Design the sequence.
């Protein structure tokens, strides 16, 4: 750990120096700063122009302890046990389509990790919260988003996940608007989830994101997972739409190298979750 | 048939689960059963194949397979060799 600033956003040159030789960097800074103002995107270039995943957390003193414990638990999980990966989505045609397409693209990965289809037409908010806190490897949400949480599942908030307790998710992706934005909220949803120890890392947007952009990220994430990526930052590097722009809507919150590895019994417990597709005879 | 047309046809065929022969330049995407959601997915696959981005306005103007090929070719030409 190194103190590198007096609380002001880092100059690009200073950040670039810090990133030389690094696989990722977690920046902890003044709690009044937001993901949008502290970082230009999910990556920052090092001194040679190489993009490096950079995560952010506000310095909330002792509350960083819950994050540190969650990050350590995830990092300590056996690396070969990737998954399970939950595909989540709001009950809306557009988002169910994104979820279905991602699920279809991940079908080829069935030998390496289990994919759970937990979209909102299939399970309740309470079951979703319980299932995520089994400690999944990763979860990817499609739907409307707000600074305080997801619109799907009757409005999922960070406190639902934090108060549930349990094992942390490896990484939570909110492929939606605003879940890393501080607009009219204290902490953004993605920040609160990570600071509460419900996930080692999270990805959220600091502004509005068009459906076209979310389709780009969905296809990129699916391809990255199919290609064998198992860490948050490298997955985003592979998934990012090309050509990259100086700024992107998404930010990494928490551990930029969180691995998509679930708790030891997460797969067994998650497989028992009652989440039938509409039309299934149960 | 140009290589771009051939490659874009392969993408449409795979994403929309259509036989390549069903995909003609003048037929509308809607006639092929390609709805707006699938159209966006096809467009993004084309972007990923060639390394550029369509704008929202460009996508709104897409009506047929032929127009997708033309737009793709135009963007490749604009990018230069």
Sequence:
């Amino acid at each position: 750990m190194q103190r590198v600033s007096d609380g002001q956003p880092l100059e690009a040159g200073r950040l670039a120096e810090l990133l030389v030789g690094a696989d990722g960097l977690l920046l902890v800074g003044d709690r009044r700063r937001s993901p949008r103002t502290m970082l230009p995107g999910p990556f920052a270039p090092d001194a040679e122009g190489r993009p490096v995943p950079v995560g952010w957390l506000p310095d909330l003193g002792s509350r960083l302890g819950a994050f540190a414990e969650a990050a350590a638990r995830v990092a300590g999980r056996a690396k070969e046990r990737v998954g399970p990966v939950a595909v989540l989505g709001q009950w809306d045609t557009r988002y169910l389509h994104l979820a279905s397409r991602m699920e279809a693209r991940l079908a080829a990965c069935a030998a390496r990790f289990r994919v759970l289809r937990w979209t909102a037409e299939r399970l309740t908010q309470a079951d979703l919260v319980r299932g995520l806190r089994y400690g999944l490897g990763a979860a990817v949400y499609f739907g409307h988003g707000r600074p305080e949480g997801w619109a799907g599942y009757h409005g999922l908030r960070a406190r639902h996940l934090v108060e549930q307790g349990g094992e942390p998710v490896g990484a939570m992706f909110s492929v939606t608007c605003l879940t890393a934005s501080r607009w009219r909220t204290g902490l953004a949803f993605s920040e609160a989830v990570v600071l509460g120890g419900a996930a080692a890392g999270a990805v959220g947007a600091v502004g509005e994101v068009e459906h076209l952009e979310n389709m780009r990220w969905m296809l990129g994430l699916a391809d990255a997972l199919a290609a064998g990526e198992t860490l948050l930052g490298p997955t985003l590097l592979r998934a990012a739409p090309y050509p990259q722009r100086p700024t992107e809507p998404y930010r990494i919150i928490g551990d930029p190298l969180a691995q998509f590895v679930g708790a030891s019994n997460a797969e067994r417990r998650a497989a028992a979750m009652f989440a039938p597709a509409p039309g299934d005879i149960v | 048939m140009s290589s771009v047309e051939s490659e874009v046809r392969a993408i449409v065929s795979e994403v929309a689960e259509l036989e390549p022969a069903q995909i003609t330049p003048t037929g509308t995407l809607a006639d092929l059963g390609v709805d707006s959601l699938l159209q966006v997915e096809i467009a993004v696959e084309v972007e990923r194949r060639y390394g550029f981005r369509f704008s929202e306005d460009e996508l709104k103007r897409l009506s047929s397979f032929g127009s997708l090929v033309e737009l793709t070719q135009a963007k490749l030409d604009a990018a230069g060799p």
